[in-house]
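Friendly challenge for the regulars: who can give me the structure tokens for this chain first? No prize, just bragging rights.
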Amino acid sequence: MAQTACMSGAVTCEKCRNGFAPGEWFCSDGARHVVPSKLYLLDDAPMQCGRAEQGNQLPKQGRTIITNIPPPPDLAEIGWRSGADDELLGGSVVFENGRYETNDPEQQYWLDERGGFCTVAQWEAAWLSPEAQQRAEFARREAECERLEKQNEQLRKAG
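First reply, four minutes later:
Bragging rights claimed.
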């Protein structure tokens, strides 16, 4: 999962390589700045419903739209408050199955301001079946074992 720090100070654009501060969302050529991708998670999974013909539970699916990301400039200037839910104002982002990833610094800034997102563990508990959670945990442990084996091999070569 890619992460970036909340944009409290200057950030460097991956495209133009120039630093910029919140509010300065465009490169000198007029294109939008690009920052490292950041993943946002919501633990708002719907109730499990239905079964496939084989008897297996159907996977959870959901779509959440968060509006005012970014807010309209005129509302921001008069003191727009994070969490406002006025539809048709500003932009919006769509979380598919509780996940939204963006490299747009303006979206990251306003999503960070809004807050209310969850950790990977909370997302998995809400969205994954118990079997899928076990598979994910097994894959994490397997990856950790591989990482440790590679680290040990490098230490043996170095020592």
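Residues 65 and 94 are 4 Å apart (CA to CA). Residues 11-128 form one domain. Your move, everyone else.
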